[in-house]
Amino acid sequence: MVRVRGNDVLCWNCGDFSVDQKYRSLGIALKLRRAAKNAVDKGTVDALYAHPNERMAVIYQRVGHTCIGQMNRFAKV
């Protein structure tokens, strides 16, 4: 769950590097991201997010992801 404008939203965290490096390719990245986006489009999950990553920008664009906000990270020392 994440909070968006004061509302709790069911959201997937899409880990870009959850595929072992030797198996990473443009093809598998596109398939995984399309499947995740399709789940949002079908209403299976409300939203998804990913940690900012310039190397994945091409994948995001090809799949049709839309950026709706900025991710802020907070840490307590």
Intertermini distance: 24 Å
Structural class: alpha+beta
Helix content: 25-40%
Strand % is 15-25%
User: What is the helix/strand order?
Assistant: EEEHEH
Tell me the number of structural domains: 1
Low-confidence stretches: none
Please tell me the overall pLDDT. Answer: 83
Major pleated sheet: 2 strands, antiparallel
**Oligomerization state of this entry?**
single chain
Instruction: Output the strand order for the largest sheet.
Output: 1-2
Helix tally?
2
Number of strands: 4
Shape summary:
globular
- The value of Rg in angstroms is 13 Å
What does the model show?
This protein has 77 residues and is of the alpha+beta class. The chain has one domain (2-63). Helices cover 31% and strands 16% of the residues. The protein is built from two helices and four strands, in the order βββαβα. The chain has helices at 26-42, 57-63; strands at residues 2-4, 7-9, 11-13, 47-49. The strands form two sheets. It has a two-stranded antiparallel sheet with strand order 1-2. Strands 3-4 form a two-stranded parallel sheet. α1 (26-42) links the parallel β3 and β4. α1 packs across α2. The radius of gyration is 13 Å and the shape is globular. It starts with a strand and ends in a 14-residue tail after the last helix.
